[in-house]
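Re-run with default settings, no changes from the original entry. Doing this only to confirm the output is reproducible before filing.
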Amino acid sequence: MKGYVVCVYKSINNEEKLKEYAVKARAAVEKYKGKFLIRGGRSTSNEGNKSPRTVVIEFPSYDEANNFYNSKEYQAAHSILKGFADRQHQTVEGAQY
């Protein structure tokens, strides 16, 4: 089954750091065969607080999504955001049909 990284930002304090992070994170996503399904864009908050940004990335498998997150490439990108963004980041296994 496919794996998904779901990242919902609560706040972003520095847009320049976010751009720097995005360049490095994208390279890691591509290395681990990820595909961006959602990357910002228009949104409507139907329940709860509105998020300034939501990202969903599809990977070939749940394990591959976790390998991406734990990779040295992604962790180097992730370190750029420390102190500049508050978010919830999780890996989710896709549904079986």
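The chain has a mean pLDDT of 95. The chain has one domain: 3-93.
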